[in-house]
Hints:
Layout: E1 2-6, H1 11-22, E2 26-31, H2 39-48, E3 53-56, H3 62-71, E4 75-80, H4 87-92, H5 94-114, E5 119-125, H6 149-167, E6 171-177, E7 179-181, H7 200-208, E8 215-218, E9 230-231, E10 233-235, H8 236-251, E11 259-264, E12 270-271, H9 272-283, E13 289-292, H10 307-313, H11 321-335
Helix pairs in contact: 1-2, 1-8, 3-5, 5-6, 7-11, 9-11
The structure holds nicotinamide-adenine-dinucleotide and uridine-5'-diphosphate-4-deoxy-4-fluoro-alpha-D-galactose.
The site of nicotinamide-adenine-dinucleotide has 26 residues, from helix 1, helix 5 and strand 5.
Amino acid sequence: MKILVTGGTGYIGSHTAVELQNKGYEVLILDNLSNSTADVADKIGLITGKKPDFENVDLCDKASLHGYFRKNKDIEAVIHFAAFKAVGESVEKPLMYYMNNVTGMINLLDEMLKNNIANIVYSSSCTVYGEADKLPVSEESPVKKAESPYGFTKQIGEQMLTDISKVNDFHSVILRYFNPAGAHDSSLIGELPSGIPNNLVPYITQTAIGKREVLTVNGNDYDTPDGTNIRDYIHVVDLAKAHISALERMLSKKSEEKSEIFNLGTGRGNSVMEVINAFEEATGIKVNYRIGPRRSGDVVSIYSDTERANKILGWKAERDLKNMMLTSWNWQKAIN
Ligand code: NAD
Ligand code: UFG
């Protein structure tokens, strides 16, 4: 069965492509390499024994995308990862984010409808909940006004899918990721942050290896046990496996609604300091850090209610923070 993975040479897409191939699916990857490299497809081949079909196509290039769908028939479903994802950058360059994430997705959905491809799994984010009133957050928690253009593009994507499902024979699964971390056990694929990382875990590993001098902890005066922000870190391989569960539920027509939403987290919240400590314990390496001011736009605490994904998808995150730290560190050493 052919599955198209947009953004498949990226961080989460590449790990998902591996899990798909391990399950016997035929994977087609479409990516414009704006935040990844073509050799990731070779690495997926090394891990799984089969290189997926890869094409450099930009979702915003309507003509190329049309040509791609004309050429590639019998696609059963799409897993849509391709997007820009840096929150801060989206505040600086909002139009770039709306163009890429919204226009790209509109073009994709248009081609899917024209080619009678009726199944999509969509990468959303817990950022849609903003500062939640109640923790843990369940899928019923209200979606708050987006705090960044990036967050808004995720909300628009969700809304487009639910609207389209109402009037078409079209099925979608919206997956709201919490904080992905870690890398594949082979250390052949992982996250490739370009420039200075925004995210905590790549910043920790780059500091530990000496690429960055010091990690700044963004505030320790929050209303949390140790004063630092709390997030739900989830291993990227666990996250990848959830896509297979979501896809199979949709393809086997078990979904109760034409558009379903699932949170993907572990249900555990860890503070910034706990993550630093977990890294030090897992690797035996001290991280040079200092306490800095709060970062604007950060929510204080968020972690997931996992019941719906556990019960309905039959999926549960298996790996712990220590494994996330170890695999991220092995990956950092491999790419250094
Ligand atoms: P990533 O940047 O590693 O992967 C995205 C891939 O999409 C890249 O390979 C990039 O080259 C490609 N791409 C971007 N725009 C494209 C376009 N117009 N046409 C074709 N390809 C394009 O990011 P990731 O961490 O793997 O994230 C995947 C998805 O998950 C994104 O939609 C992101 O918003 C979402 N998400 C990520 C996180 C996170 O923290 N990593 C959290 C929540 C949601
Ligand atoms: N942090 C630091 N120092 C750093 C980097 C981060 O203290 O150098 C802190 C942040 O202030 C925050 C925590 O570490 O308290 C996690 O920050 P990240 O930037 O790693 O992750 P976010 O929770 O801000 O956001 C991430 C992705 C978003 C996505 C969201 C939810 O960047 O795209 O998870 O999935 F929407």
